[in-house]
Amino acid sequence: MTGHHHQHQQNPPADTDPAEFWDERYGQSDRIWSGRVNPVLAEVAGALPPGTALDLGCGEGGDAIWLAGQGWRVTAVDISAVALERLTAEAARAGVADRITAVRRDVLAEGFPAGRYDLVSAQFFQSPLVLPREKVLPPAAEAVAPGGRLLVVEHGAPPPWSGLDPDDPRFASPEEILAAIGPDPDRWETERCGAARRTATGPDGHPGELVDHVVLARRR
Fold it and tell me: Biological process GO terms, please (predicted)?
């Protein structure tokens, strides 16, 4: 579910099947996201030695392909088979398919893939469907290897062109995101907990400022 541009819409019914919802969403166009790496991930991972990474809600693979190009071995997880097909094709075109393992999985229903990772990345792991942070983020933290990092980036506010309420409860504060992870301070060091701002272009071609909420924690 990563990406730079979210097309906001009315929340679907509570009993919507998430896999069907996302396959249909991806099926509406040849590409949904920009294909570029998310900037906070590039900043954080670019300063680390390449290792193993878990990319949650990898979408069409912009982050996973960038990480693989930097030398990381990436497990890319998404609920949408359509998104993963696109990722696999793009990874082959980029020459990094051997460093990416694509996994179709509903982490809420089926849990996380086995293994520990040097970097676990949840970039805009937000959804119009119910996706409780407190059920997703603690197991994401458990998947981090000793000395590794968990990076969570969420939309901190709706885009200025969306018409949505800036106080919409879906936009958690950095402190609320950290609380949902619930890291034991004896075992975790919080390296970053705050807002990052970037400029993006809206559908009408006008630039606007986007706010991302960033939590970066290192397992001791």
Answer: methylation
Give 129's contacts (C-beta < 8 A, 6+ positions apart).
11, 12, 16, 18, 21
CA distance linking residue 190 with residue 186, whole number of Å? 11
pLDDT at 6 over 70: no
pTM of the complete model:
0.90
Domains assigned to the chain: 18-219 (3.40.50.150)
Lookup: tokens for 205? 């071609």
The pLDDT of residue 174: 97
User: What is the pLDDT, as a whole number, of residue 33?
Assistant: 67
Handedness of CA 136, 185, 174, 3 (dihedral sign): negative
CB 21 within 8 A of CB 79: no
